[in-house]
Amino acid sequence: MILRSADGPGPTEETVKILVVNAGSSGLKLRLLGDGDDLIESEDVAGAGEMVSVLKGWAKPDAIGHRIVHGGTRFTSSVRIDKQVIAQLEGLIDLAPLHLPPALEGIQETGQVFPGVPQVACFDTAFHSRLPAAAATYALPRDWRERWGLRRFGFHGLSHSYASRRAAELLGRSVGELRLVTCHLGAGASLAAVKQGASVDTTMGFTPLEGLVMATRSGSVDPGLILWLETVQGVQPAEISHALEQESGLLGLCGTADMKEVVMARSRDAAMALDVYIHRLCAAIAAMASAMRGLDAIAFTGG
User: Fold this and answer.
1) SS3 for 285?
2) pLDDT mean over 106-122
3) Does position 10 have pLDDT exceeding 90, yes or no?
4) For all residues of the chain together, what is the average pLDDT?
5) Fewer C-beta neighbours within 10 Å, C or N terminus of the chain?
6) Catalytic annotation on 124?
């Protein structure tokens, strides 16, 4: 980018620096990018406290972008963060309890380290905000859907959007002519059916709990099973929520949430965990391809 020099009228080259903060369910990823997405600094940290000490050693950015998992029905594109946006995000915490609190903490802490630097919220749900009605709608009473805005939101949209574009580049084709299944397989995991550059189906739904088996999340479970646990066995909702979010998935199946450990292990439980994971994954890939009436390529990304 060409900017005017403070010492005279002549132009001078200056790199515009963007700090990207990705608050996931298993830690914070920090990247300082220059022109052309050139990587200037990179660090993965466990939490906001560690993030502050790292950022104090980095150059001051010109802007800060935050990955925000859930935008609800209100946020369908990126927005500049202000007090009103923060208040609205706080109202969505119950929809993504593992992700939104650390994201909000990250916004607060980066604002303190770099006061006055504009911050922007980039939503993982935005890429899926125009899902076809057939893919977005739950078969629930109309009153419920209208009163509470119940719908399938989808997540990992920033990753799915990038992966589809990058896959098209590697194939030497336009993303607008392709039918792609993008597979984001990390601690959280989801698929997207990307047809002509647009998301037409995805595996996550109202919350990031629906869909594939994940590191500690169960993925899709028969809702009748949940009701049975609560009404017949007396398990409290808070205990059910904690178990589904943090004690299930690979961890619940074989005692570890680390896929590398699952693959390397020789135990019967680890073998079953991998079989369950792959069974769900393959079935979901087929479902995504069906939503597009065909498939040109599959892209894999994530941790």
Assistant:
1) helix
2) 95
3) no
4) 92
5) N
6) yes
Q: What is the pTM of this model?
A: 0.86
H or E element: which one contains 159?
Answer: helix 157-171
Give residue 9's pLDDT. 47
pLDDT for residue 114: 96
The terminus-to-terminus CA distance of the chain in angstroms comes to 33
* Residue matched to tokens 């915490």: 93
Question: What is the rounded radius of gyration, in angstroms, for the C-alpha atoms of the chain?
Answer: 21
**Contact assessment for residue 250 and residue 215, using Cβ atoms and an 8 Å cutoff:** yes
Give dist(CA 52, CA 67) in Å, integer: 17
Q: Residue 194's beta-bridge partner residues?
A: 180, 199
How far apart, in Å, are the Cα atoms of 300 and each of 12, 57, 70, 166, 180? 41, 34, 22, 11, 11
Pull the structure tokens for residue 177: 């002519």
Selected catalytic residue, list 82, 124, 143, 296: 124
Beta-strand pair 189-195/198-202:
antiparallel
